[in-house]
Specification:
Elements lengths: L4 H4 L3 H21 L11 E2 L2 E2 L1 H8 L5 E4 L2 E4 L4 H6 L1 H4 L4 H4 L16 H8 L8 H7 L3 H7 L8 H4 L18 H12 L3 H8 L2 H9 L7 H5 L10 H15 L2 H4 L8 H7 L1 H11 L1
Antiparallel strand pairs: 1-2, 3-4
C-alpha cells in the first residue's frame, strides 16, 4: 500500500534549511575562485597599499613608463629601497604617490619626464616642510622662477627610492658618509666647480683622504637656502665663512694651523676694505 504523496515531501522547514545551506556552499565556492586582482583589499594594510604589492611589479628589471616621447625607468631595486631612510621610517610608496592605490595606474598627463618630476616633488613638503620652505628662497628656486625648469629640485639631490639617512637619528648631526658624498652630488650640475674643488687643499683632503674636518660644499654655500655666490653680499661674507673653521682651535690644532689668521686678514688693507663695505 503506497503512502499519500504529501507524506513523501519533507517538511517546509527542512526545505528552507537545505536551500540556505546550498546558497552558502555556492557563495563559499565563488569566494575561493576570486582572482588575486579581485581580492585586492587583502593586499592592503590599514587601508593602505603595501610596498610589497608595488614592488611585486616594480622590482622587475628594465621596465619603463612612456611619457610623451620619452622613457622613464620605473624599476625599483628592493634591496636599495630597503636600505633607504624612507623604508626604514616605514614610509609607504602611496604616501608619496598619493594618486595611486591599485593597478592599472592613472594616466600621466604631462608630456616630459622633467615635468613628471616637477609634478611630484612638492610631495616632499608633506614631511619636510622646514627644508622645503627654505628652498623657496634659494638660488635654485629663483632660477626656476625665471624659467629654468632644470634648476635643482628636492629629488635631483635626494633620490626618494635610494636616499640613505643623512643625519644621526639621535645626534641630528650630518653623518661622515653623508659629508663625503656631498661634492659628488653637487657635481651632477656643477662639474666645473667640482673639478676645481677636488684639486684644492680642501677637496683633496676630502675626496682622497676621506677627511671630514675639511669644508664641503654646504659648509660655505648652505644646504636648502643656498644664496647666489656671485653677489657682492656673498663675496663680503667669505671671511666669516672661512672663520667658521679657521678660528676653531678644535680643528686647527690638529693640523698646526694658527687660529689668528682672521685677525691678521681683518687688520690688513683687504680685510679693512671688506669691513667698511659691510658697514655701508
Amino acid at each position: 500500500m503506497s503512502l499519500p504523496h504529501k507524506l513523501l515531501r519533507p517538511p517546509r522547514s527542512i526545505q528552507t534549511f537545505i536551500l540556505i545551506l546550498g546558497l552558502g556552499l555556492l557563495l563559499f565556492t565563488l569566494t575561493e575562485l576570486v582572482s588575486p586582482a579581485q581580492a585586492a583589499p587583502a593586499l592592503h594594510q590599514e587601508n593602505k597599499t603595501s610596498n610589497d604589492f608595488c614592488l611585486a611589479c616594480h622590482q622587475e628589471e628594465g621596465i619603463q613608463k612612456t611619457i610623451g616621447k620619452e622613457k622613464l625607468p620605473v624599476t625599483i631595486n628592493p634591496t636599495e629601497f630597503g636600505l633607504s631612510v624612507h623604508a626604514q621610517e616605514n614610509i609607504a610608496c602611496v604616501d608619496c604617490h598619493t594618486n595611486i592605490s591599485d593597478y592599472p595606474h592613472p594616466d600621466v598627463k604631462v608630456k616630459t619626464v622633467r615635468d613628471f618630476s616637477l609634478e611630484l616633488y612638492t610631495t616632499c613638503k608633506e614631511c619636510h616642510e622646514e627644508q622645503f620652505e627654505k628652498t623657496q628662497d634659494s638660488v635654485h628656486q629663483h632660477a626656476f622662477d625665471e624659467g629654468n625648469k632644470n634648476a635643482a629640485i628636492c629629488t635631483d639631490c635626494h633620490n626618494p627610492h635610494t636616499q640613505t639617512r643623512l643625519t644621526g637619528k639621535e645626534s641630528g648631526e650630518l653623518t661622515p658618509s653623508a659629508r663625503l658624498s656631498i661634492p659628488e652630488k653637487c657635481a651632477k650640475c656643477h662639474s666645473t666647480i667640482y673639478n676645481q674643488y677636488k684639486n684644492s687643499v680642501h677637496g683633496k683632503a676630502l675626496t682622497e683622504e676621506n677627511n671630514v674636518d675639511v669644508p664641503t660644499c654646504i659648509d660655505c654655500h648652505g644646504v636648502h637656502n643656498i644664496q647666489d655666490p656671485t653677489t657682492v653680499t656673498f663675496r663680503n661674507s667669505t671671511p666669516g665663512l672661512c672663520a667658521n673653521c679657521h678660528t676653531n682651535p678644535k680643528i686647527m690644532d690638529k693640523y698646526g694651523i694658527s687660529t689668528k689668521e682672521l685677525d691678521t686678514y681683518v687688520a690688513d688693507f683687504h680685510g679693512t676694505t671688506v669691513t667698511l663695505f659691510e658697514k655701508l
